[in-house]
Specification:
Layout: E1 10-11, E2 14-15, H1 16-35, H2 39-46, H3 51-79, H4 83-99, H5 106-133, H6 140-169, H7 173-179, H8 181-194, H9 220-234, H10 240-248, H11 257-282, H12 284-303, H13 308-319, H14 324-335, H15 341-369, H16 372-391
Antiparallel strand pairs: 1-2
Length: 397
């Protein structure tokens, strides 16, 4: 099957679609991270909502986004077109974020944030499938690594922009939320103008049914990979626990925590493309083994952490694990036919999303009852178990 960009324009070593979708991710996350760090205090302090309401907003929005991944991926397969869903999802998120500049009550903020996450659920699976459609199989790891690198770079720039505007110009919440519309609007403009769909999008035949968590059309390799990812994500709690560990065991002041967080984002952005390229050259499985091994060692280090110097090193070392993000998405594309890619990414993203909440709850429960050392060692153990399941993924089938 001819890839839509094969033999076409190349920009900075990537096909046009891949390059532009990376820029769109950069601008979207720049916009998102201008808003996200301020949203909890905006909701609780400025609008007067309780902490329970913040939990309701986050939990409800994430749950709906994970379900929509299933639907949007299936719809993109059924239609044979992905660009419209990607553009629609980004546009909905942009308008929802911008609406926060106008809200005057907590329930209105809930609605705005809810539809921001709905937009994410609509766009993610079709976007991943469009990236896979738009590059040669031997370049998928690098392509997805580039997308993740741009995503992390945008997040870093967005948080920095928000802090700069607050510190330098004393801007309020509403002004920053309104300004956050500018970068995402630019990203959507680039998407509409520059991204093109070609022959790789093959519509599913009529009568394929409604979207559901159905693994029957997929081979054994994909199912084993999902099992490994599920187990790994059960031990992959929120990175906020790393900051808490740095504060308690590393003796970090509040002023240093943003710097530590920044180091993590810089490493994330720096390893994504090399990780993808390594997987193109040496195989996806080996690079995922490497990343999950790093995670296991880093969590073991956090379990026995004592002192600020080790904290800086551990955060940088832990960031290397993120070289697996793009590799896993490329692995999915390797395992499924083009006409099922949207559905496959919907199921993959759904599997990750539904596991994030119990992972963090388990970490918090273990931390509170038996201590952080056991909590981090449990995460390391699940990473090791996931690696053993990954080793069982068949080479074919």
């Amino acid at each position: 099957m001819k890839h839509p960009e094969e033999g076409g324009d190349n920009v900075a070593g990537f096909t046009r679609n891949v390059f532009v979708l990376g820029l769109v991710s950069f601008f979207n996350d720049l916009s998102s991270e201008m808003v996200y760090p301020l949203f909890p205090t905006f909701l609780t302090e400025f609008l007067g909502a309780g902490a329970w309401f913040l939990g309701l907003v986050e939990g409800l929005a994430d749950s709906v986004a994970s379900l929509l991944n299933l639907v949007s991926g299936w719809v993109s397969d059924r239609l044979g077109h992905r660009k419209g869903l990607v553009a629609g999802g980004y546009s909905l998120s942009a308008l929802s974020r911008g609406s926060l500049a106008l809200v005057v009550a907590p329930w209105q903020a809930l609605v705005g944030w809810f539809f921001n996450r709905v937009g994410k659920g609509v766009r993610t699976a079709p976007r991943d499938a469009l990236i896979a459609d738009s590059c040669h199989p031997r370049e998928r790891g690098r392509a997805f690594g580039y997308q993740r690198s741009m995503d992390h770079s945008g997040a870093l720039m967005g948080a920095a922009a928000s802090s700069f505007l607050l510190a330098t110009f004393s801007m309020g919440y509403r002004t920053i939320f309104a300004l956050a519309l500018i970068p995402i609007a630019l990203g959507i403009f680039l998407l509409l103008l520059q991204v093109r769909e070609g022959e790789a999008a093959c519509p599913l035949e009529e009568g394929t049914g409604f979207p559901r968590l159905d693994l029957r059309p997929f081979g054994r390799r994909f199912k084993w990979l999902l099992a490994a990812v599920f187990v790994f994500t059960l031990g992959n709690s929120s990175d906020a626990f790393l900051l808490l560990r740095a504060r308690q065991a590393g003796g970090f002041s509040l002023a240093l925590l943003p710097g530590l967080w920044g180091v993590l984002h810089v490493v994330k952005a720096g390893v994504s493309i090399p990780g993808g390229s390594l997987s193109d050259r040496f195989g996806r499985r080996r690079v995922v083994f490497l990343g999950w091994g790093i995670y296991c060692l880093a969590y073991t280090g956090f379990a026995f952490l004592n002192g600020a110097a080790w904290t800086w090193l551990l955060f940088a070392f832990y960031g290397l694990y993120y070289l697996t993000e793009g590799v896993l998405k490329a692995f999915v594309a390797d395992m499924v036919p083009p006409e099922l890619r949207g559905s496959a990414y919907g199921i993959y993203n759904f599997t990750v999303s539904i596991t994030v909440l119990p992972a963090s709850l388990m970490m918090g429960l273990l931390w509170s009852t038996v201590g952080p050392r056991v909590a981090f060692l449990a995460g390391a153990g699940l990473a090791l178990a996931a690696s053993l399941i990954l080793a069982a993924v068949p080479r074919q089938g």
